[in-house]
Amino acid sequence: MNPTxxxxxxxxxxxxxxxxxGVEVEVLSTGWAATDEAKVETHHEGATxxxxxxxxxxxxxxxxxxxxxxxxxxxxxxxxxFPLSTNNLxxxxxxxxxxxxxxxxxxxxxxxxxxxxxGGLFDLDTNTVAWTTREEWSTAxxxxxxxxxxxxxxxxxxxxVDHDPGEAGQILGVPALDVRGDGSIWYLSTPGHTxxxxxxxxxxxxxTWLFIGDIxxxxxxxxxxxxxWRVSLVVDGRxxxxxxxxxxxxxxxxxxxxxxIVAGHEPKWVENTL
Length: 274
Known about the structure:
The protein is about 20% helix and about 25% strand. The protein has one domain: Ribonuclease Z/Hydroxyacylglutathione hydrolase-like (Metallo-beta-lactamase, Chain A). The chain has a 7-stranded mixed beta sheet. The protein has helices at about 70-75, 95-100, 115-120, 135-140, 140-145, 150-155, 220, 230-235, 240-255, and strands at about 25-35, 45-60, 65, 90, 105-110, 130-135, 155-160, 170, 175-180, 185-190, 200-205, 210, 260. The protein is an alpha/beta fold. About 45% of the residues are buried. The N and C termini lie far apart (about 40 Å).
């Protein structure tokens, strides 16, 4: 099952906090990308910069991160490589995921394998476990931007997961895997932006969070704006599924006001820290 088959009408149950002690969420940025607002939202203009967001989930069994952002290889001008450029990217000292973590990072849940969500993996311990979906992994070399297959394959330990009915449950109307086994962190199948895109639902001690990766770059996309069609043509791998995934995220934003939905590059989460 994928978002194209979500029934957007009918009963909808909003996620509730888990009450589990020690499960907390923090949104961080590994840096930012300078760009033109006209490339982000239609009918906008002017220069802007978008943060390269990651999530840090504190958990009694060990921290879990959502995405890896960019890191030292970008700061050094090495990654990403041609035809992309590092000229518009800034990774301040201390901002990379490896610099923010205390020791080993045990799990990184990747929403997708575009370069600005995976570059920080190069800096991590080879025992780090990076989650991705089977569909994302099988299309990484053909459908993703600047996925350095040879180097990234050996940079971390990969956990390629299936959201098949026999493997996954159902959360928020989509297939989901229980990451820690206690119902606090769920890895959701939400394809569209890329063939195997995922989202992460966190039922923290006192609140609920939904990291949707690049289903939406900014909160404006969760309201009534979209990516310009020329941009979407380049970056969105499965347009019909992407539309369904965006409708899904918009529905939960409207119906569940206490659910904190984190769009992939929304400045408000870190506007006082950059």
